[in-house]
């Protein structure tokens, strides 16, 4: 029997989710929520460029809440960054949970305890009302910087420091909503600064969740988590898949989040984002890597071609989480609570 799924939003991640569900015999798309009035009434398959699926898009939240479904995959652009109501995502998530639907979201809340008891209690209360479970996921955070280091740590006898380094360039990522609107590439320093208050707050929250989950996973008590960032501007006009990046606009970002214990950086997540590979030669180059300093010293490197479709990573990780979240007990289910997530149903 296939799990009945509602997809929430049809951006880059949501469209990939619909395509993945359409290929799986263990999943069945039952509903689709969209924000754009122009998409209402369209078939979900048509919207994402595949065969018709017999599911019409709606922007009526009450219709979604009334639907019979096992799980909602919630993948909008984050309201903490976009729109007039920063709390909109949390309101929607709690309403869905209270209606009896399990929810998997990619907007954050992977480890919601970091935001305090009030938020955590609100999600848990919604889960209890609906007898449902909630899970936040992603590719990073949500896989590279947390699940993989935690898995690698099972080989450790002593851990002095975990250092995660993500080095990415996005010249081939054809999503202006993510690259420009969300990440802020192509913005003037003034426009980036104006946006950055909300964006950096959201991003800092995401990676604080990741750092704290890794610390809790290895039993390390943190005193605090620090965050710092810097940007570099394009030295000339650039053309990337997401659109033009003008000279003098933001073209590179360097971030660091560090979990501090007894004055030492114990969990470090360093992220270097270039909108084009030619940017910022002074910053580290290479590939994604994880280093665990201690005994034994462990190093795991992801080669340049480790994934030939990085754009689908977040969506597929959410899809593969569905059986585990549906089958989980009521409440918030983090990666520390769920079984090891595998591609169940992907090998049919």
Q: Which segments are poorly predicted (pLDDT under 50) over 5 or more consecutive residues? A: none
CATH A-level architecture of the largest domain: 3-Layer(aba) Sandwich
CATH homologous superfamily classification of the largest domain: NAD(P)-binding Rossmann-like Domain
Name the shape in a single word.
globular
Summing up helix and strand content along with how strands pair, one would put the structural category as alpha/beta
Number of H- or I-type helical stretches: 9
Main pleated sheet: 7 strands, parallel
- Terminal CA distance reads 14 Å
Provide the succession of SSEs.
EHEHEHEHEHEHEHHEEEEEEEHE
Q: Fraction of residues in helices?
A: 25-40%
**From the structure provided, what is the oligomeric state, counting identical versus distinct chains?**
single chain
Q: How do the strands of the widest beta sheet line up side by side?
A: 3-2-1-4-5-6-15
Q: Roughly how many Å is the radius of gyration?
A: 20 Å
CATH C-level class of the largest domain: Alpha Beta
Strand content: 25-35%
CATH third-level topology of the largest domain? Rossmann fold
Number of domains: 2
